[in-house]
Amino acid sequence: MSxxxxxPPKASARRARSPRITxxxxxxxxxxxxxxxxxxxxxxxxxxxxxxxxxxxxxxHGLGCSHRYFLPLAQQLAAHLRVVAVDLPGFGQTPGPPAAxxxxxxSLALAxxxxxxxxxxxxxxxxxxxxxxxxxxxxxxxxxxxxxxLVGATVDRRARSHPQQLWRLICDVPFENPALVPLLARDYLxxxxxxxxxxxxxxxxxxIEEKLRLIRVPAAVVRGKRDxxxxxxxxxxxxxRLPAGRYVEVAGAGHAVNFSSPVKLARIxxxxxxxxxxxxxxx
Length: 283
Description:
- By secondary structure, this protein is of the alpha/beta class.
- It has one domain (49-273): Alpha/Beta hydrolase fold, catalytic domain (Rossmann fold), CATH 3.40.50.1820.
- Helix content is 34%, strand content 18%.
- The protein contains nine helices and nine strands.
C-alpha cells in the first residue's frame, strides 16, 4: 500500500476569514520589502522589488533555495515590473511542517498563497524544482496560471536517480556565477539536510512531463546552454509537450539562469509578457 500523500493540513480549503498580510523591511539586502502572509498553515514570506502598482511577476525557487537567488533577475525587471519571490514552506524565511512536503503539497501551498494575495494569473517564473511545483498547479488549480517561464526544469526522465542528479549538480558548478555557491550554501543550511533530502526524493518521484498537456497558457522552457542538469533533449521534449510552448536556450549559462544570466532571462520574460514568443536563442 502506498504511503499517504503529504500535504499541508487544510491547504486546499478556503478560510472563512481573510488571511493576514503584513509587510516589513526586507529580510535580505537588495530587495524592497518583505511580505508575510498567514496561509497554508504557515507564515509565508515573499520578497518584493519594483514600483507599487506595477504589473507583477512571481518567482518560484528550486530545491533548497529561497527568494535570494532571484535578486539579479528582479533587479533587471524592476524598472517596469514588481517582482515577488516567494519562499515555499520549509525554505528561506517560511516555516514548514516537520515532514517535508512533496511536489503536490508545495503546489497546494503555492495555490493558497496566490489566492490569499490575489495573484491569480500573475506570470510565474520558476527555476529547477520550482518548475515542477508550478506545473503541478495545472492539475488542481489551472485558473491560477498566467504565462509561465520554466528555467532549467527538472527532473530529466533519463536520469531519475540520486547518483545521476548529484553528478550533474557537481558538473554544473563551473558554469555558474561563483557568488551563487555561498548563497546556496546558506539556503541549504537553512532548510536543513533532512528536508533537503526528503524533498529531493519527492522531486525524483514527480513526473512533470505527464502534466504539461494541462498547461493552457503561453509558456517558455528556458535552458542554459551549458546546463548539465536539464539537457537540451529534455528541454526540447518539455517544450514540445506544451500546447503553447517555446524552447529557448541561453548561451554560456548553466542551471541557475536567473542568477548567472539575469539580463538574458529578463529579455526572454519581457518578450513572453508582451505576447512575443521568444526565439530559440532568446531574441
